[in-house]
Amino acid sequence: MSATAGESEEFAVRDVINRTLGEEMERDDRVYIQGIDVSGRGGTSNILKGLDDRFGTDRVRNTPISEVSMVGSALGAAATGMRPVVEVMYCGFLGVAGDQLLNQVAKMRYMFGGELDLPMVIRTKNVMGANAAAQHSQALHHWLAAIPGLKVVCTSTPADTKGLLKAAVRSDDPVMVFEHGGVYNRKAPVPTEDYQYEIGKAAIERRGEDVTVVATQNQLWNALEAAERLASDGISVEVVNPRTISPLDTETIVESARKTGRCVVVDDTPLSYGTQSQLSAVISEGAFWDLDLPVKRLGVDNVPIPFSPTLEDEIIPGTDEIVDEILDLA
Amino acid sequence: MSSQGERSEEIADQERIDMLRTMVRIREFESVVQNKFADAEIPGFLHLYIGQEAIATGVCQALTERDYLTSTHRGHGHCIARGLDTDKMAAELYGKETGYCNGKGGSMHIADVNAGMLGANGIVAGGIPIATGAALSAKMRDTDEVAVSFFGDGALSEGAFHESFNQAGIWELPLLGIIENNQYGEMTGLEEHHPPSALDDLTIYGEPYGVTRIQVDGMDVEAVYEATLDAVDQARNGGGPSLIECVGYRFEGHHEGDSQFYRPDGELEEWKQRDPLSTYPEKLIGEGVLTEDGYAEIEAEIEAEIEDAIEFARNSDYPDPQQAYEGVFSDGGEQA
Ligand SMILES: Cc1ncc(C[n+]2csc(CCOP(=O)(O)OP(=O)(O)O)c2C)c(N)n1
Question: Which protein residues touch ligand 1 with a CB less than 6 Å away?
Answer without folding.
Answer: A 36, 65, 67, 89, 93, 96; B 72-74, 122-124, 151-155, 180, 182, 184-186, 254
